[in-house]
Amino acid sequence: MPVIVVTVVPDVRVVSGFAVHDVLGKPLDRASLLASLVRAGAGGRAGGMSEPPKTPILIVDDNATNLKLVAYLMTASGYDVRTAGDAESALEAIHAHPPRLVLMDVQLPGIDGLELTRRLKSDPATHNILIIAVTAYAMKGDEEKALEAGCDGYVTKPIDTRKLPELVARMIQGTPT
């Protein structure tokens, strides 16, 4: 990772002995920063700096309308979104493109969302993936069942379109929910 020092006194001697790619003086202008990034190999491009990669998430829901709504919402929030309609498709998607977070419908045909969560959390290759249970069933004890299965969060339907992106962002950033 390139290290560029920005300082009031751009003296290279101050950073000698450190793995620094460049030293820039303040006030900093866009052209100088871009040139420094290009020299450091940080992927600058004409017209602006390259965007950071989008965080990959997977949405698993057997209801096409819910899947479309949540996918649109998460894409609009800046995530790299993949979708799956059942547990088997979810497993294929997870192995092909490992997500940082999964929005998991609890009531899936075949293998349900909680069983899929248990499997993912017991596999060393996938146990660090964050999983938020999403369910239309908000009975007493359901949240506890989801958390016991290994879910890292719990959301009820209908989806609150303001709160879900905030929850996802907090979880990815590691901020308590």
- Total of domains: 2
Under CATH, the topology of the largest domain can be stated as Rossmann fold
Count of DSSP E strands? 9
Number of helices: 6
Query: Which range best describes the helical content: under 10%, 10-25%, 25-40%, 40-55%, 55-70% or over 70%?
Result: 25-40%
Shape: elongated
Query: What is the terminal-to-terminal distance?
Result: 31 Å
Explain what you see.
By secondary structure, this protein is α/β, with parallel strands linked by helices. It folds into 2 domains: 46 residues, no CATH class; 118 residues, Response regulator (Rossmann fold). A 5-stranded parallel sheet has the order 6-5-7-8-9, with helices on both faces. About 5% of the residues have low confidence.
Keywords:
alpha/beta; five-stranded parallel beta sheet; two-stranded parallel ribbon; 6 helices
Task: Summarize the model shown.
With 177 residues, the protein is an alpha/beta fold. The chain has 6 helices and 9 strands. β5, α2 and β6 (80-84) form a beta-alpha-beta unit.
Layout of SSEs?
Layout: E1 4-7, E2 22-25, H1 30-40, E3 44-45, E4 48-49, E5 56-60, H2 64-76, E6 80-84, H3 87-96, E7 101-105, H4 113-122, E8 130-135, H5 142-149, E9 153-156, H6 163-173
Parallel strand pairs: 1-2, 5-6, 5-7, 7-8, 8-9
Antiparallel strand pairs: 3-4
